[in-house]
Every structure is written in C-alpha cells, then in structure tokens.
Design a protein that fits this description.
By secondary structure, the protein is mainly α. The protein is built from 10 helices and no strands. Helix 2 packs across helix 3, helix 4 packs across helix 5 and helix 7 crosses helix 8.
C-alpha cells in the first residue's frame, strides 16, 4: 500500500511517531536502493525511549498491513484489472515492467480515492508528520544501521516529503501521471509522450471506477485488517 492507505488504517491513532514509522519503509525505498527498513530490536520501553518504540511499532504495522493487502482478493482482482488495461493500451513508453507500473498505479489510485472519500485525511496525515521530532527519526535510523551522516540526510528527505506534500497532486490526472512517470524512471529511462498519457488517462478512469465500488470493503471494520494491529 502507499502512504495514505497506511495512514487511513490507523488515522485515529494519536501518536505522530507511529504515523511516521508506518511510512518509513516506503520513504526508505525512495531515499535510495538497498534501504529496506524493517522493525528493529529495542530494549524494554522507558520514558526516554518511548518515541523510538512508537516509530518501531509503525514500521512493524506497515509490513504486517502490506502482507495482508498483497494477499487479499481486492489486490488480486484490481492488480489484474490495472495490468490488463495497461497491456490493452499498448503504451510505447512502457515496453517492459508493466506489472511494476500496475502495482504502483493501483496503490496510487487507492490514495486518490481515499482523498476523494475523506477530504481531510491528507491534511491530518501531514499535520501528524509535522509534529514529529526529526532527531528521534535520525536516532532510529542510526539504530537501524545507517551511518550518522546518512541518517541526517534521510531526515532531510523526510522533511522534504512533509513540506512538498506531493500526495495532493494525485487528485489530478496530470499529478498522478507525473508521479507514476517518476516511479517508472527508477527502472526505465524516458518520459510518457502525450499519446501515452491520453491512453493512461483512459486506463485510470476505467480502473478507478471499478476500484471505488470495492474500496469500502477493503477497509471495512470486519475486513482483512480487523484485529491486525
């Protein structure tokens, strides 16, 4: 799942560092190759270490939720739908790794639909992240194994994520396609020409309509995420 979907699962949790922890694995992948952030061992919680434990709980929650999501009927159905629509579009700018694009687009569309259905969700997400202590995040990343200088760069990357607030751009097709293009450039160089963007917009419309109907079932109180915290 993408950033906002992870937040939506626990959007009533009052701990901003838990919210930050739930996005660290995704942020690590965007920071650089090889940063696959997993939960770490921490000694028993004390008042001085409480925020580190909140971060760690968020990281653990992220991976558990992803495991449930990627084995769900919702994911299987809509991943195949997005992938088949991408193949049918015969996009010249996506000659390979269509499965990767389908996976990314599916998760981006979930975030977009959550913003549409819950207008204040993204505001609340960024507000929670802005209440975190970046020195605590830096300390956590050092405990995870990052050198100190690299951990400071990572917290700068975190701060940039919080100030750029690019998730809002998912609300427009232009913003969504820009984000998708940037993600694809991680595995293939190049840009989406206008002709492909038009075809991608048609793909987005078809997949989003089907997904919107099923999305409440994915996050239902008695759905796959019940009692999973």
């Amino acid at each position: 799942m993408n950033y906002l979907a992870h937040f939506f699962l626990d959007h009533t949790d009052p701990r901003p560092h838990f919210t930050a922890g739930a996005m660290l694995p995704d942020l690590g992948r965007s920071f650089g190759k090889g940063y696959r952030i997993q939960a770490i061992y921490l000694p028993p919680q004390t008042s001085a270490q409480q925020l580190l434990h909140h971060l760690n709980a968020g990281v653990e929650r992220h991976h558990h939720a992803d495991k449930l999501f990627h084995t769900s009927a919702f994911f299987r159905r809509h991943f195949e739908l997005v992938k088949s629509n991408l193949y049918k579009a015969q996009l010249q700018s996506i000659p390979k790794y269509t499965y990767f694009v389908a996976h990314v687009l599916l998760e981006m569309l979930i975030d977009r639909l959550l913003m549409k259905q819950h207008p204040h969700l993204c505001d609340n997400y960024y507000n929670a992240l802005l209440r975190t202590d970046t020195m605590v995040i830096s300390r956590y990343m050092q405990l995870w194994g990052m050198p100190k200088e690299e951990a400071l760069k990572f917290t700068g990357h975190f701060e940039l994520f919080c100030t750029n607030q690019y998730l809002y751009h998912y609300q427009t097709n232009a913003g969504l396609l820009y984000g998708l293009e940037r993600m694809y450039q991680r595995v293939m160089p190049g840009y989406f020409p206008e002709k492909d963007k038009i075809r991608l917009e048609a793909c987005i419309a078809a997949c989003e309509e089907a997904m919107e109907e099923d999305l409440p079932l994915l996050f239902a109180p008695d759905g796959i995420f019940r009692n999973s915290d």
